[in-house]
Amino acid sequence: MSFNLTLIGQAAAFALFIWFTVKFVWPPLLRAIEARQKTIADGLAAAEQGKKSLELSAKQAGEEVAGARHRAADIVAQADKRGAQVIEDAKTSAKAEGAREKAAAKAEIEQEVSRAREKLRDQVAALAVAGAEKILRREVDAKAHADLLDAIKKQL
Amino acid sequence: MASGKDFNAADYIQHHLTFLTKPVGDGGFWSLNVDSMVTALVLGVLGIGVMWWIVRGATAGVPNRRQAFVELTFEFIDDQVKSIFHHGDRHRFVAPAALTVFVWVLLMNAMDFLPIDFIAGALGLFGIHTWRPVPTADVNTTFALALSVWFLMIWFSISAKGLGGWIHELFCVPFGSHPLLWPANLLFNFIEYVSKPLSHALRLFGNMYAGEIIFLLLWLLAATGIFGTLAAAVLGLGWAIFHILIVVLQAYIFMMLTVVYIAMAHEHH
User: Fold this and answer.
1) Predicted local confidence at residue B5, as pLDDT
2) Which of B254, B75, B246 is nearest to B148 (CA)?
């Protein structure tokens, strides 16, 4: 174990190597690694952001679809209601019209019937009188048959 | 070198534990361990240069395998530093310094895996007969690193607390600021400041030196004959596998202590 100039020589070499590493080896590597770390961190953040916006838009789309479905259901229900009402209205008016027409027809028929009956009564009366006149021409006693004629007239 | 009729165990060990020392000027302290210096420089340039070469074209996109490997090391060091150092921007100095320490010390420790006699044989062809390939088994290297960290420690201590704050801490921490306690505090801090670089340097040196010695002893066994060679091969494999753990662990410990010492220097008491 003897110390000599080697001690100083090695110390100088050591200082030189440290200086070189500090100056030329460490910084570029550090820069590269830090840049890569930043890239990775940015990428991860972007992925996170993308995931978040995807979730958001999925939620929005779901809401939109739910709203549209709701509106469609409303429209269908309204249409159903309106259709039913139209049918109901048509039915009601048709019924009223029918009843009205029926009543008019009935009145006309009754009128017709009573007119026909009147006419028939007159004709039967005339027929009876004619029949009676024929009978009277043969059998003179009109008086004797007046009661009978009246009775016939009443029966008609 | 482990062959020949005049083979001598003491010579063999001695031979492999001799540095290639060249005097610079007067000799004595003014001499250089060329083997430690050259190996350390080559490994440092290689390790840090390769990282630089890969990192120059670093992309923030999908990294290729080379970049991924460097990033793995980067993240490993950065995680360790992050858990210890909470005193400002670690990227400015502490983390890159820790990376340097880890890579460089790991490579220097890993030289222990190379078969020592192959290296000696190859270099012998060029007329170089002594060469110690593990720079961290040289106290000069480990103390150079530990003392550099020690100076950094004092530097950051002063820059974080100011010169007054640092001197205040020398006298008033850890026992209290009563004037009667000043000597005790100063003594405590002195011991701490001495023991930190000592333990830092000697832990690494001791582990690597011991690893080297055990390999040498095994290769001595290998020189005793065919049975010894087989036994040394098996034991050498076992020790090398175990040594993988030691090499990485010691580099890791040295790096962690560097970070811990610098982090402690930033702490206010």
Assistant:
1) 47
2) B254
